[in-house]
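Section 3.1: Structural characterization of target chains.
Under the original work plan, the team committed to producing a structural model for every single-chain target entering the pipeline before any wet-lab resources were allocated. The record below documents one such target. The sequence was received from the expression subgroup and is listed exactly as submitted; it comprises 139 residues.
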Amino acid sequence: MSELKDQPLRASTSEAVTNNVRVEVESQYAADLSQPFQGQWVFLYTVRITNEGEDTVQLLSRHWIVKDATGHVEEYKGAGVIGEQPTLVPGESFQYTHRCPLKTSTGIMRGTYQMVSENGDHFDVEIAPFALHEPYTVH
């Protein structure tokens, strides 16, 4: 517990821009889906991906890294997000909400999206770290 208490407070939002693609994330504790007495905390995170560049881009795959309060790390890789591989024309955004279960009341998520531009250039887009924490946790 003191290990977490000594860490600086982390926001439950994040924002990063890579190759003119902005990724904004906001997380929240899902009390109605969680069962703390059974060691199950669930968090919802909403991601908004915005194409701020001049070329059309497509999200091909994702790579998430989730670390809980004990230091346990899980990685999740797969095609697209929520079953989609959205294509974003300049100025367009795509938003979705998903869930992350944890065995502790706090954690951190970060990752990358693998994208391709209309001219065939492949690149990674950063998903900046954001905190997962239930509202009653002492930081």
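The radius of gyration is 16 Å.
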